[in-house]
Give the backbone structure.
Amino acid sequence: MDWEALWLSVRLGGLSVLILVPIAIVVGRWLAVTAASGKSLIEASLALPLVLPPTVLGFYLLVAFGAGSWVGRLWQDVFGHTLVFTFEGLLIASIIVNIPFAVQPIQRAFEAISPDLREAAACCGLSWWRSLWRIELPLAWPGILTGMVLTFAHTLGEFGVVLMVGGSIPGETRTIAIAIYDRVQAFDEASAGKMAAVLLLISLVTITLSYLLTQRVRRRHD
Amino acid sequence: MTDAAGLSIRLDQDRPIPLSIELSAVPGEILAIVGPSGSGKSTTLRVVAGLHRPSAGRIVCNGTTWLDTKAGIDVPARRRRVGLVFQSYALFPHLTALENVVEALQDRPPQARRDEGRALLQRIRLDGLEDRLPRQLSGGQQQRVAVARALARRPDVLLLDEPFTAVDRVTRHRLVRELADLRQDLPMPVLLVTHDLDEAARLADRICVVHRGRTLQTASPESLMARPASPLVARLVNLRNVFSGHVTGHSADRGVTFIEWQGRTIEAGLSDAFDSGARVAWCIPADSIIVHRRDRPSQGERENPLSGIVGEAVRLGETTELVVVVGGDDREPFHLAIPTHVARRNGIDVGAEVGFSIRAEAVHLMPAEPDGGEHSASD
Amino acid sequence: MVRRIGPFLFAFAIAVALIGAPRPWARGLPTIAAASDLQFALGEVAEAFTEETGRQVKLIFGSSGNFYRQIQQGAPFHMYLSADEEFVLDLAKKGFTPDRGALYAIGRIVIITPHGSPLKPDGGLKHLGAALRDGWLRKFAIANPDHAPYGRRAEEALRHAGLWDALRGKLVLGENVSQAAQFATSGSAQGGIIAHSLALSPNVSKLGTFAPIPQSWHKPLRQRMALLKGANDTARRFYGFMREPGGRAILRRHGFVLPGGTR
């Protein structure tokens, strides 16, 4: 059992959620109410990671982060090491890959809030922030929770992109999913089996928990 | 337009729906905006609240300019002091009745908010239900919470958007009565949007008739019913006895204007604004048509005596509504209502001949509709 | 009020835990990227190294071609052991390594068949030819010749035996030779060509039987290693250890042919 890899995956998932979800709330809220002309194109771009093969994403990220790109060079100048094959690079990749998993449920949740309520909040004199904090976020909470869980669970399970930009460095980029692959390659089926079971269990518990919470919130609201 | 106290509105836009609205209301006045669906009355309300921005317009409330498209002024909704009661009530579903009201009290000191919220709920007789969520309240109770929340801001203007449509008829009558009671305490202008003329007549000091985005006429309910500005307004306020004819002359001595209608001469009160020979429309309120009774002839019978055949008789409990065709021409029949016992005693039923008079003073003349004018004033 | 800031505190606590918590596993160990035919041999070498020096290294196994690409993109490896010396020599030319490194072993390929397979392992590939002719061979595993050195050698050997074109439609390609071994012994394929070192390991040898393919049928698998720019002291010592008798003995035991001297 590779605890190091499991902890790395959990950290990666947790940090992806913490960084991505606030961004997704802002973007999802904007997409839910905007009538901007480029909306469909923006939505389509944000959904791309959903349909693109991980290898395509991995390839572009590799090119974008690599020592040959200006992003990669800038990062190297500032931090003294490359972005690919590091935890930070993996985190950025994970955030990009998870954009649709976080944005879409959150956008749907904001869309489901009747415009009347938003207008009622304005007519009650609530500021934009108070309206978001007091009215919209509580009502959108089930969607936000879904976005969080999907992001976390998907990060735990992401393989293709991690394989391409990560490089399976223990303690740095070897996630649990990669560790399982490595163990299978090493004919170590006992370890692979154990880790697969742990991953399965964690995913099941996370998703069940989110369903329970969502159900409770729904019961409270309608 | 006076900018001192109250509300004055002037709106002009072509899109998305055409608007040409002009109206004003003074503090304490209830102004009902009446018109068929899609006439722009709700949009007008949303413009006042700051939820919709017209392409051109000016709104001044108690001397403060809320909107002036020419000057580039558009105060956002949250900074206009308006209380808006939505058709759907739009209560925050995750907050209790009290919390809903307290949300609108953000400008009060924090300690005072809950007490003031409780006081407001008490005023609309919802004490004891403070901690209920909206879904645990009846439709009528929800509406009252919405009113309390709208009043909580101490608004400069109170806006009611079809506030009674989402409840059953019995509740509706009670709520209308409650609002009528409450209005004595309302120091601000109140705009009431409704498609229900009875509701408007019962509550409003003045009624503004809106059609296809235009204000047609603003007047007290009584004068609107008696003296509509045009045949279109007459139809919109459900006046059914609207006829066409032309002026044949005036008699200043007798104070009478003569109209020719289907070969008959009808006497009306003097309206010398219309030239002799002018095509006009004329109308008569149902309560100024006097049905001749065999058992009890009366004074008024001498004015404009007419007789016709009853084409339809619909008995609605204590009253019976009649459609009477005069002179065999059924294009412009008279609609009148008489007590059911009178109809019965005088043998008035389908096919019977009935005589009636119309009071000359109550005959109201309007400019004739241009040919091909609008005939679609259905709701 | 507590209910309102509760979620914030919770999120903050998680953030601190995820970012700030000391990583419980040692960092700073040199990472050594090795061709996957070393999967078992190098693990043993590393153990012997730790026993002797008290120092530890981190091993990653994969396709030599992939490591070659990753190193050029800046992967933070300290040392690279390729199954094909061309990769190392090219990196040296491009300046990713301080020198041309050292030849550490010469690999051999074998044909392996899982227990119960109708295919008999014979180094001359005669039975494989018969299976193809008679049409009962379904799947045969080799490493991907595009980037895995063992795949290239397998292709050369199959071409030499005149079987390549007939076999092409039946091939399953492993991403590296270790995966090819996985495929070859899983029972889903009737056999495959893999590294001798892997076939000898207990994990694999229990799954099937194998026979070496003549070395003259393919170009030699000259395996070269090199330190990379930024290699630390431990990596340097490991590099040295690989060339000492202790390290060489382990490699020999795992089926590698050892070069006479260094070049």
